[in-house]
Design brief:
Elements: E1 3-6, E2 12-17, H1 26-33, H2 41-53, E3 69-75, E4 94-95, E5 101-110, E6 116-119, E7 126-128, E8 138-140, E9 157-163, H3 174-191, E10 198-202, E11 206-210, H4 214-228
Antiparallel strand pairs: 1-2, 2-3, 3-9, 4-8, 5-6, 5-9, 7-8, 10-11
Length: about 230
């Protein structure tokens, strides 16, 4: 297990397999930034990593998985995550964090005797909302069915799933890549000392130079927020 994330509406998510794919390649970022040389490649790549980590599920604020990654939602029971939410108007549905969902790996639980049991898709549970890359997906009992009785204990119910954009089943929205590239442009001045300087001058007193132009940075942040408004899960 790699990382624990508390989930506000019940349970916790544990990162099992972290993402490895690129959200934005170095070549794509350089093209958008209008950079053709290779002198700044290391800085640009570092800025890409920082921008993606600020958004992606494991450490970011967007609440959305940008690249394929495996998580396990751990619950005390099948009721643990349904206190305040009822996705798809189904009171038995368990919403999954970090959309979009790619697939379910397993749904397991400890029964009242402490025996580890596994549910099978189609007979033990079903998926709701699969194939809607901008929505949250959920698992629920089969139609007219109910969840089995699980022993109420820490991580008694474990739902392991793969989520993220894969450019096949869930195609990444263009504004996500644009937002990352804008963030890279905003971060670049912080990684080098000779670009985007801002000077505050008082006649007869002197002047002071800042590493980054705050007006430019504010415009960039507002542009990023506008691009991602409809993609934020929280």
């Amino acid at each position: 297990m790699f990382r624990n994330n508390d989930i506000s509406d019940g349970g916790r998510a544990v990162l099992v397999v972290p993402p490895t794919d690129d959200v934005v390649t170095l070549a794509d970022a350089k093209q958008m930034l209008g950079i053709s040389g290779t002198d700044q490649d290391v800085l640009i790549q570092a800025a890409i990593y920082a921008a993606v980590d600020n958004l992606d599920a494991a450490s970011g604020w967007l609440g959305r998985a940008l690249r394929a990654q495996t998580w396990e939602l751990q619950l005390r029971s099948f009721d643990d995550r349904r206190a305040k939410v009822a996705p798809f108007n189904n009171p038995l549905a368990i919403p999954l964090p970090y959309p979009p969902l790619l697939s379910i790996v397993s749904v397991k639980y400890f029964d009242v005797a402490g025996v580890d049991q596994a549910l099978v898709l189609g007979t033990g549970y079903r998926l709701l909302g699969l194939g809607a890359p901008l929505e949250r997906q959920a698992v629920a009992p089969v139609y007219n069915g109910a969840w089995p009785v699980a022993r109420v204990d820490d991580a008694s119910v474990r739902i392991r799933f793969i989520c993220g954009y894969d450019e096949n089943q869930n195609v990444m929205p263009r504004q996500l890549k644009s937002a990352v590239c804008l963030a890279v442009r905003d971060l670049m001045p912080l990684l080098q000392r000779d670009q985007m300087l801002f000077e505050d001058r008082v006649e007869g007193v002197g002047s002071k130079r800042y590493q980054n132009n705050p007006e430019f940075a504010a415009v960039t942040r507002n542009a990023i927020a506008g691009l991602l408004t409809n993609l934020s899960v929280y």
